Amino acid sequence: MTDNDSTTAKSREALPLDIAALRADTPGASKVVHFNNAGCGLLATPVLKAMLDHLNLEVEIGGYEASAARADEVRHFYTEVAALINTTAENVAFAGSATHAFATALSAIPFEPGDVILTTRNDFISNQIAFLSLRKRFGVRIVHAPDTPEGGVDVAAMAELMRTHRPRLVSATHIPTNSGLVQPIAEIGRHCRALDLLYLVDACQSVGQYPIDVDEIGCDLLTATCRKFLRGPRGSGFLYVSDRVLRAGYEPLFVDMHGARWTAPDQYQPARTAARFEEWEFPYATVLGCAAAVRYARQVGIDAVARRSPALAGTLRQELAGIPGIRVLDRGRQLGAIVTFTVDGWQPQPFKAALDAQGINSALSLREFAQFDFTDKAVDWCLRLSPHYYNTEEELGRVVAAVAGLRGDRR
Ligand SMILES: Cc1ncc(COP(=O)(O)O)c(C=O)c1O
């Protein structure tokens, strides 16, 4: 089975999406052409309402009292995320960002000098910096698996590196921030499981875009943010912690009074569940907004989303590639809803600003976001467009026309 099986090609039936209704639920859809869902998706009305209702309750009865009154709804965050990624509520921890979740997970691994972290050339910038920081402090070794000629990690070569190095940690980013590449994380996971290696997956750009099934991926830990393709609020994410990891007693370096009980003056007892990886203080309105966003995404239907969002991106990629002076950069066996390209003659900020001026939201990726990938592609920057299911074909046409119109104006 290829990784495509774990994402797009499942034989589940997906109903066609009612795009007009979904846009009516999305106040921003009538204000901007939002092609920056890989940055932050547009909030849907039920998500905004969940947050505002809670903030109003805090105003009326007090912050602690409001969270107590909404305890059942807060629990829905865990059950919704669990249903989204095929696990149980006890395996889910809330996090203020994916990066925080990732750092907390890393802090639970007792690295020793010489331990190997095996990763890919397309793992997220902050993850790579975290590995370098671990190298500086603990003397771990970082090994990057090579890519295939078509783009994306060479799984066979990575498996060989697993056998040679017996890494303390294998880490893979499902979809990088800087290109449309979808990495074969379930194929990597099968090798990790066969060799009983600890496997951490960054699913930031894929959650809400593709079905995510932690059992099928075979990961021990998985991190995600809620604000991107899940369309949740800013300042939210989650960490999945497998039973294997919980049973083995992994705990973050700093556990607080929520993650552990202080059982005697010189003892503490970590929580039995993934709550071990959380902190006591919670942004409750945000947590409730996340619960609403995940519920909304599941109601829309992740299978239908997984068909539409990457397909819109595929059309966009094809049309941009036909414009002289545009170089589309996405490479790999499977490509998702991120489109990246360069434009002859333009500097990054003025080009983005010119699209901003036409009401088109986009993002820039710079070389330092992707040291390996951009070196391989010999580029210093690219523009990133990331459509989602609620974008329309008409918007796509406007974006293509805008890029084509700017192409000649060198700046
Ligand atoms: C692939 C990937 N991983 C991790 C992150 C970090 O997420 P957060 O900003 O929630 O920490 C991002 C954000 O762009 C990302 O694209």
Q: How many extended strands?
A: 15
Radius of gyration, taken over Cα atoms and rounded to an integer in Å: 21 Å
Which whole number gives the mean pLDDT? 95
* Major sheet: 7 strands, mixed
Low-pLDDT residue spans: 1-12
Number of domains: 2
Mind telling me which CATH architecture of the largest domain this is?
3-Layer(aba) Sandwich
**Euclidean distance between termini CA atoms:** 47 Å
Number of helices: 16
| Class inferred from helices and paired strands | alpha/beta
Protein name: Aminotransferase class V-fold PLP-dependent enzyme
GO molecular function, one term: transaminase activity
Domain Aminotransferase class V: 35-398
InterPro entries: Aminotrans_V_dom, PyrdxlP-dep_Trfase, PyrdxlP-dep_Trfase_major, PyrdxlP-dep_Trfase_small
